[in-house]
Amino acid sequence: MFSVNHQKFMEMDELSLQKVPYFFVIDFLTENVEIYKENEIEKSGLLIDFQTFSTAKNKQELHKKIEWKSFPETLESFKSGFDKVQQNIRLGNSYLTNYTRKTRIETNLTLEEIFYHSNAKYKVFYKDFFVFFSPETFVKIIDGKILTYPMKGTIDASLENAAETLKNDKKEKAEHYTVVDLLRNDLSMVANEVKVDKFQHIDFIKTQQKDLYAMSSEISGNLKTEFRGKVGSIMKKLLPAGSILGAPKPKTLEITLKAEGYDRGYYTGVCGWFDGESLDSCVMIRFIEKENSTLYFKSGGGITHMSRLEDEYQEMKNKIYVPIH
Fold first, then answer.
1. What is the pLDDT of residues 15-36, one digit of tens each?
2. What is the pLDDT of residues 271-306, one digit of tens each?
3. Contact between residue 122 and residue 52 where contact means Cβ atoms under 8 Å apart
4. How many CA atoms lie within 13 A of 141 on its CB side?
5. What angle do CA 127, 133, 136 make, to 5 degrees?
6. Is the dihedral of CA 256, 189, 132, 120 positive or negative?
7. Disulfide-capable partner of 53 in 224, 263, 273, 291 (CB 3.0 to 4.6 Å)?
8. Residue 222 pairs with which residues in a beta bridge?
9. Helix 75-90 vs helix 249-260: angle between axes, to the nearest 10 degrees?
10. CA-CA distances (angstroms) from residue 286 to 75, 146, 243, 297?
11. H or E segment and range at residue 13
């Protein structure tokens, strides 16, 4: 069902078994897998800033007032794909589908400036092609243990009792439960004794446009013997990431491709840093891409049978921001 780049995943296995540090980037459909050993990163045009690893140089001060405009599609246009998703959910083909859109933006910031000045857990700038500033970990592997932190549910932090409201919102809660369930099942393919360690943890995200709260959980398991040290095999098994696709995976992927009608490319793919022992990886969301000379921001959210069109449209627009303050 998913087209897979076997050779590259095998190469990732070989490197991780030999404990060779490397960085990898995998697009949404796992059609493009890129691998950079530590000494190749500099030449590749990649700038990386993870919590555990960074190739970022000293950042320059930003001596300009930020200009930022977005041109979201109309509600009507958003609705046509939304309806396709809802129809499939009603038919029982999917119970959670991540529906994303691509929005033209205009800013006086370069992609490189966005990389340097955004505040995020994971940031990558790639050859003047795309930049992202993601708050979402995909998986971490430490001492034979695999952990994942699905993030589902955001709310404008300026609203009264925003964190509580988010935690108790029926739709957000259902979506969160579904993703936790999905990722628990996914981890079980590569790990034993999978369990939820933290449930519905609320994070605060500060941005130039508005402050947000986001909800995440923590799930962990012990890697099965046949997957130990094999980062490529683990990725091949787990991708595409459940939190940005939906469930069940193969059918939901079909629905997503039809409803969205554009190419996600590297957006919602994953990238990660293997340091020779441990792995830290993230989902490539909060994503800006340059197409010819036009910038597009790709964003979206999970749709369930409880989703309301206007709310989902608003959430898609809420996520069009840069975390610079």
1. 999 999 999 999 999 999 999 9
2. 999 999 999 999 999 999 999 999 999 999 889 998
3. no
4. 25
5. 125
6. positive
7. 273
8. 145, 192
9. 150
10. 21, 24, 14, 8
11. helix 6-17
* SS3 call for 52: coil
DSSP-derived letter for residue 197 is: E
Alpha carbon distance, N-terminus to C-terminus of the chain: 43
Helix, strand, coil tally for the chain in percent (to 5): 30, 35, 35
pLDDT for residue 209: 65
Could you give the 3-state DSSP secondary structure of residue 47?
Answer: strand
Token look-up 């970022």 returns 56
Tokens at residue 252, please? 């939901």
SS3 254: helix
61-100 per-position pLDDT tens digit = 888 899 999 999 999 999 999 999 999 999 999 999 999 9
Single-letter residue type at 10: M
Q: CA-CA distance, 166 to 182, in Å (whole number)? A: 21
Task: State both tokens at 21.
Answer: 């540090």
- Residue type at position 22: Y
Encoded tokens for 122: 């994971």
Asked whether the beta carbons of 27 and 263 are under 8 A apart, the reply is: no
